[in-house]
Amino acid sequence: MDNQPCVEPANQMESQLQLSQFAMENAFIEIYWLDSHARICYANKQACEITGYSKDEFLHLTLADLDPNFPIDQWESHWASLKLKPTQSFETLHRRKNGELFPVEVVANYVCFEGHEYNVGYAKDISERKLTEERLKISNQRFEALLQAVPDLMFEITKDGYYLNVWGGRNDMLAAPQHQLIGRCVKETLPEAAAQEVMLSLAEADLTGHSSGRQIKLLLPQGECWFELSVAKQSNDNIKDPAFIVLSRDITARKLAEEEIRNLAFYDALTGLPNRRLLMDRLRLALSLSVRNNYYGAVLFLDLDRFKILNDTLGHDYGDLLLLEVAARIQHCVRETDTVARLGGDEFVVLLEEIDEHAEHTSQKVALIAEKIRESLSTPFSLNGNEYQSTPSIGVCLYSGNEVSVDTLLKHADMAMYQVKGSGRNGVRFFDPAMQQIVETRSALEADLRHAVPGGQLHLYYQLQVDENLQALGAEALVRWIHPVKGMISPMQFIPIAEESTLILDIGGWVLDTACAQLALWSANAQTRLLTLAVNVSAQQFKQPGFVEHITDLLLAYHVDPARLKLELTESVVLSDMNDVVAKMHALKILGVSLSMDDFGTGYSSLSYLKKLPLDQIKIDQSFVRDMTIDQNDQVMVQAIIGMTKNFGLNVIAEGVETEAQLNLLKHMGCLVYQGYLFSKPVPVEQFLKLLPHEQFN
Ligand code: C2E
Ligand code: MG
Ligand code: MG
Asked: Topology of 260-431 in CATH?
């Protein structure tokens, strides 16, 4: 066995041996000497320290005590193999004196020394390393699990776009099966635009370490899908050829939600047309574009006539069907580049851009388009098999540059549309600045009118009513507004404005209150206590729930005899909800209040309703009175009204009597009560009292 190490007996090298022994004894690894029977015949200091045995104790131990896992029954064959291969290394467990096991790495050497054979074992405690290895293993397992748990897809890709690895649970989202991807380039597997995004992400990550937020769109068998890429450069990679981790997250659902939100925000849900918000945006763009190219454009404001009736009678489903069809027809009449928007309800707006460089040509062209739309929408619709005839009112406003704001432009088109409505509907009208002036004055007046009642700017004037002997019967109370700047404003101007809002309720309330207060004053005086006071009541005011109760309260509060109060109603009061109106009128009659029908002959003048209404008086409108002496028709009309009132047992009064001729004719025809400038204009109460015969005040 010449290849076996054999230590020569030490005699001349005594000191060298001692040095070796010292080194062995103080080495930082455990050293054991076993004899051929596996008995421990030497253990160094480190071995004692680590295991807890003393040197003497070791001399009673065998390998089986130190390494409980060693198959001691195979010692012979181990010994033999060691002799053949004198240095062997392996890992095993050693046992401490307290029974605790710990991992060791052992290098076993066969040594023959002074005729004795030994197995010299060098053992290193590898607890630390084992622990690290275990941790690493767990960490790797975790990482592996993590990769598999990636909800979408994760790739390892080279800088040039070659797939190195693919992980993740969403194989259905891959452009090709996982195994087919590896080794291929994104440029081969993805559409050009998507591949380019990936390459850009990689380049960005190469520069800065990471990239995120880029999105790609892929058409997969299940439909269009969106992915968001997050890329990180692997830090431990070699600088020359770095690899990147690419996380591809499926954001299709988010994209769909975003689109849905955008649609909701900018498009009308029913027709899919742009809504007001988007329209305003496009209008702004159109105006600024027009500044640059000097072209004229136009805004068409379109409203369906009597749409509400269709909705109310046939239901909203029919209304929706009509709106859908209207949307389609309008779109059909304009270019694809034009915007057709729905503002809500039955209101549509068409924005026609870049029509012409000349205003006049633009007007002509726009008029043609508007007329085409009007005609198209006037053609009968078939809604669920039912034919329906509709018409639109279209207001048009041209624009050039951005002198007017988007809001003003729309408002002007809207005003023009209202003009169409006012003049019989189913037409097209261009915005005209004079009309705007009227509207602006009107809205300024409305704003001021809000201060009229609280500001004490209203006054009540009284106009005499007389009998055929020209004796005073009473007066009509007529409201006046003394505007702090504009002076006196006629009720013809402000009452219609007040009637468009609830302002008329405040004004009407004030008038009734003031009139009752006046009646209370008059009741205290013998000369005035028999005068009646006629008060105009607006339709809105009359229809207020609790109107009758309100009158009752007033009469009670002021201790006024109800017979002194006369309410003047107009035909507009009875136009709707006849039953409610009749019931209220009866209640007022029972109270003792009298009722007069004002402006008779100008409204519906339907005889059928006259029969049903418990009226006391009919007031012939001044327009008939004015012309009756010169216009035969008006005279016939006045005669007919007088005859009819007689038939119904009502009394009749003529208003607007200005001349003796009118007075005489009226008297001749049988009308015996009058009101008009011939007797007096409406005047403040002090002046009114002066009109009464003086003896009445004695
Ligand atoms: P109305 O109730 O038909 O009042 C008659 C109007 O004719 C009054 O106009 C009166 O000044 C005017 N008038 C009377 N005699 C003559 C005449 O001989 N010739 C001419 N050319 N006109 C005459 P006013 O005071 O401007 O009132 C206009 C309308 O305003 C009233 O018409 C009434 O509808 C409304 N109004 C006035 N005061 C009130 C009110 O307190 N409440 C409500 N709801 N409406 C009122
Ligand atoms: Mg009146
Ligand atoms: Mg009148």
From this structure: Alpha-Beta Plaits (3.30.70)
